[in-house]
């Protein structure tokens, strides 16, 4: 078995060192570009990883940048929008049956649903939000025998118009018809949270 000691590796046609291996075994590469990433697979030299700026990691496919972790640790990607931009994640979502015994049908980062009475529920997050400034949206199945008005999901507010529960760990909603103040239990309620 041969041992490679701390050294600089350079192709004969290259002006700079291509790979620097230090005494601790850490390897450093040239920055590369989207068209010629510094880390790639044999035979596919325009797809791989490169370093477009300080504290930034870029990902390229076919010579075009498709992703990046920037110096603020934001993940950016190009998913058909024409350029790389920051991805804002859906931090939690849930689809549940709000009739009878409340039951989650499917979810992400939601640990449970608390039934607070007819048409009122608290969505409990499995992992806390970074703060309470997240955005939310919800939809429901139309109320049985309803006219085109349908039903909506609201953030429950107190008498002063303040949110009853919009915290980093839970979110309280009420579900009701758009043409009345009557709350109702429905069999298909979906809510998503973006931050």
* Biggest sheet descriptor: 6 strands, antiparallel
Strand-and-helix sequence, N→C? EEEEEEEEEEEEEEEEE
- Overall outline: elongated
Strand order of the largest sheet: 4-5-6-7-8-9
| Radius of gyration, CA atoms, in whole angstroms | 26 Å
Word description of this protein:
The chain is mostly beta strands and 195 residues long. 0% of the residues lie in helices and 44% in strands. It contains no helices and 17 strands. The protein has a 6-stranded antiparallel beta sheet, with no helix packed on it. The chain has a 4-stranded antiparallel beta sheet with strand order 11-10-17-14, with no helix packed on it. Strand 10 and strand 11 (103-108) form a beta hairpin. It is elongated and about 75 Å long.
